[in-house]
Amino acid sequence: MKIGVFMFATDYAIRIDELAQEVESRGFESLFVPEHTHIPTSRESAWPGGPDLPQEYWHTHDPFVSLMAAAASTKDLRIGTGICLLTEHNPITLAKQAASLDFLSNGRFELGIGAGWNAEEMLNHGTDFKSRFKVMSERAKAIKKLWTEEAAEFHGEFVDFDPVWSFPKPAQNPHPPILIGGESDHTLRRVVEYGDGWFPRARGGFNAAENVNRLRTIAEEAGRPMSSLTVSIFGAPPKSAVLEDYAQAGVTRSILALPSEDREEILPRLDRYTELLKNNK
Fold this sequence. Notes:
This protein is α/β, with parallel strands linked by helices. It has ten helices and ten strands. The protein has one domain: Luciferase-like domain (TIM Barrel).
């Protein structure tokens, strides 16, 4: 099993290029960053994590700019969005951003996607909360076409365009992995339909064997081999026993959380996490 880390890359935390170098030098496989374009000050939508929304949610950098800085300062580190709020992006523009990032990083990018929880935030981008999953799915499917077809076209309820040229194409063949966040059976069906991997959160306890079997069952029902899908656990507990359970269950990658803090806080924590790498071999 691979082990990576994630952090909200903010204006007050360790620089993302410095973090990427420190992460790669210690042997971690990947670095993921979350996304919020902004946070409406009305705060009408309740944050699923509790009553008080951490300030990192409205201080985080653009993920694609951040990940390009991370890629430019490393050689082999995998980089990814954890997650990109696809309900807040034009799919044609995002396809080019992501393809450019993958091309310039020599094929190291993974696109983790989700619909989001903040209704006011996505409404500012023109997405109605009730339609968010349909919007996400259409945009993801359109992006795959833009990545892989010479002259791509898409005609749906929320995305509609006649044949277009869009370059560069990604370095990875056929395209960067699309990892879909969420924990419901609906999410798993989306993973099987058009994704390359599942990106569930570990919060509240995560029975790896049970959940991997859930995905396997839905994949088998759809006629898709489980071997074509990955499972990346977001916010995995930094505990050897838990990570061993994940590995035994067939989890592909565990992603450990880093706080949005400066070097003095982050580097010692990375050193502690490095012990988990030794136990994972």
